[in-house]
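anyone seen this seq b4? input:
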Amino acid sequence: MPNKITGYTATEPRTPIKGSSGNGQVIDKSQVGAAGASAGATAGTADQVTLTGSGRAMQKLADAVAAVPAVNASKVAAVKQSIQNGTYQVNSGQVASKILQFERGLK
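predicted toks r here
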């Protein structure tokens, strides 16, 4: 019977959380044939996890997001420089528009 929360059946192995202390082995479904599956089952007592295509895609996306810096350093430096020079101009119309857009999104 499928788990109502995740939709996985009880027979499907789950992927450990990244950074966990588990010492299991991860197997990619797309690279395991019938012989590889039986050899992995008799290899010993090591835990095994089979990743689906969507699981691999989610891991790639998580890695890509983690690699992107949270702050655009060049833009911050440019704004700092213009504030120090006294040339930074605030567009009050644009600020008001963004505030209204945010408020409308809350409803």
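The chain has four helices and two strands. Residues 32 and 38 are 10 Å apart (CA to CA). kinda curious what u guys think
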